[in-house]
Design brief:
alpha/beta, seven-stranded mixed sheet, seven-stranded antiparallel sheet, 25 strands, binds flavin-adenine dinucleotide
């Protein structure tokens, strides 16, 4: 087998992998190989924010996974998109720029993960960012990831803000600032009207470095070990099996669904599972693939009284052409925005100490996120419970490294999750009934006025709710005493040498918000930890 030698071999060029490739190759002292299973990010719709709809179901850049049949979701298999190209999921995501709540990180630290409190991670959030609003206590400038304002007001978002005021929910111009509570406009990870994926923000500026090699269409099959030391990665490319040796470290950044699969395929995981597929055990780690968490979204859809929605633009040829021209000449308008403009972090129950639901307001409506828009004027309030208690798993279904593993989120198995989601749907209805927003509501399309009891609202969620695309937690960070912990607070795999996991899977608990910026923060911090280990002072 042909083999090449590197200091670091990184698996997966997604949100985390591109950050690592840039930072680890920056000082020129170390050679870095970045392996990506997907193709280069040349598909043109990746760059255009509204291209979200073109990549959502597109196997060219998307793994297009499905969960196992979900017991609490009427046995449905829930569609799980995931990016498969340079930039990973940051190349196909909804561009919403959110960090989560400071208490999320303080909670990670309280679980024994030193160095991960909000005060510890805030410098990394500031480092990764170029916020068009300028520098402040909370925000940075000059970082690779652009956070931009939407730039134009929309009547529906303005009405939602006014509706919030009627219900005592404050306006909030910065969900990533002093407080998360409130309603307002999201910032987006766009740069001058184009998507700012980690491939464009981090990888492109580093591509010309002689010590960084990027291999696309290169699928890692397993990590090789010498005893308990990781020595490299075996991968598949153009019909051949190749080997890459890592003199220092192998870093798994294949995401929360495929990093645990790679560990399991390599003999690291729950022993009974590995034995079932005849995989020799390198290290027993029962937590590999467990602790899977995701945000479920119930999309409450309203017919709009005015033809001001993106549905109206898209069903009119002249308005579509105008939208296209506006984008081409000014990089503004619906094509520069993507899907969701307005957001809200609210407390569905006054007894909770911080927001427990997040809303995404889309000025359009469709049956599924990313599917064709309805022919009527419509808008969507997507309701998501921020801190789900339900836990699932990712487990091998076969020893074939090219086969997808079983993904079982177990949505809505915890009673608290069911109760919070129902309260969130009721909050959407209360907002729609306010003086400010009711002027725009011609009727509730989904779940529909006939659903009134908690059970009926829950049935709607079981039947129609889907992912908001944040699977996490499958290689949990935690101290060795935690039976489910996979990595320590330095993100090194417990009981092994020369191997770390750096991606969404290390979150011990899902953050209260969208996950792209938090993953980039994790990778920024990991890069410092890795370089500190390589270059001790
Ligand atoms: C449709 C969608 C919309 C989203 N919207 C938002 C949003 O608006 N805001 C937000 O903050 N977050 C959003 N997210 C979530 C966010 O983008 C992800 O949580 C984040 O990108 C995950 O980063 P990661 O590095 O863990 O994994 P990924 O970015 O998914 O990267 C993993 C990479 O590893 C590669 N890979 C996997 N297995 C192998 C292998 N064996 N060999 C080689 N390469 C491999 C994959 O192809 C992929 O490129 C969205 C996600 C999706 C899918």
């Amino acid at each position: 087998m042909t083999s090449t030698d590197w200091d670091y071999v990184i698996v997966g060029a997604g949100s985390a992998g591109c950050v690592l490739a840039n930072r680890l190759s920056a000082d020129g002292r170390h050679s870095v190989l970045l392996l990506e299973a997907g193709p280069p990010d040349t598909y043109p719709w990746i760059r255009v924010p509204i291209g979200y709809a073109k990549t959502m179901f597109n196997p060219r850049v998307n793994w297009c996974f499905k969960t196992e049949p979900e017991p609490q979701m009427n046995g449905r298999q829930v569609y799980w998109p995931s990016g498969k190209t340079l930039g990973g999921s940051s190349a196909i995501n909804g561009l919403i720029y959110i960090r989560g709540h400071r208490a999320d990180y303080d909670g990670w630290a309280a679980q024994g993960n030193r160095g991960w409190s909000y005060a510890d991670v805030l410098p990394y959030f500031r480092k990764l960012e170029h916020n068009v609003r300028g520098e402040s206590e909370w925000h940075g400038v000059g970082g690779p990831l652009w956070a931009s304002d939407i730039g134009a007001k929309h009547e529906l978002v303005e009405a939602l803000i006014a509706a919030g005021a009627e219900l005592g929910i404050p306006a909030n111009a910065d969900f990533n600032g002093a407080t998360q509570d409130g309603v307002g406009y999201y910032q987006l990870t766009t740069r001058k009207g184009f998507r700012c994926s980690t491939a464009s923000a981090y990888l492109r500026p580093a591509r010309s470095r002689g010590n960084l090699r990027v291999e696309t269409d290169a699928r890692a099959l397993r990590v090789s070990f010498d005893g308990v030391r990781a020595t490299g990665v075996v991968y598949h490319q153009a019909g051949r099996e190749l080997a890459a040796t890592a003199r220092r470290e192998v870093i798994l950044a294949a995401g929360a669904l495929l990093s645990p699969q790679l560990l399991q395929l390599s003999g690291v995981g729950p022993p009974a599972l590995l034995q079932q597929f005849g995989i020799p055990v390198v290290r027993e780690l029962p937590g590999v693939g467990e602790n899977l968490q995701d945000h479920l979204q119930a999309r409450v859809i309203f017919r709009c009284t005015k033809p001001i929605t993106t549905n109206d633009v898209l069903k009119s040829l002249p308005r579509t052409l105008l939208m296209g021209m506006r984008y081409v000449f000014t990089r503004t308008g619906p094509m520069a925005i993507g899907i969701n403009q307005g957001g809200m972090f609210a407390r569905s129950d006054p007894a909770v100490d911080r927001p427990d639901v997040q809303f995404h307001l889309a000025t359009l409506s469709s049956d599924m996120a990313g599917s064709p828009v309805h022919t009527f004027s419509g808008f969507t309030m997507s309701v998501c419970q921020l801190r789900p208690r339900s836990r699932g798993h990712v487990r091998l279904k076969s020893a074939d490294p090219l086969a997808a593993p079983a993904m079982q989120p177990n949505y809505l198995t915890a009673p608290e999750d069911r109760a919070t989601l129902v309260r969130g749907i009721r909050l959407a209805r209360r907002l729609a009934a306010t003086r400010a927003l009711s002027a725009y509501v011609a009727g509730e399309y989904r779940p529909g006025a006939e659903a009134t009891t908690d059970d009926e609202l829950l049935d709607f969620a079981r039947d129609k709710a889907g992912t908001i695309f944040h699977p996490a937690g499958t290689c949990k960070m935690g101290p060795a005493a935690d039976p489910l912990a996979v990595v320590d607070s330095g993100l090194a795999v417990h009981g092994l040498a020369g191997i770390r996991v750096v991606d969404c899977s290390v979150m011990p608990a899902l953050v209260s918000g969208n996950t792209n910026a938090p993953v980039i923060m994790i990778a920024e911090k990991a890069a410092d930890l890795i370089l500190a280990a390589a270059n001790p002072r």
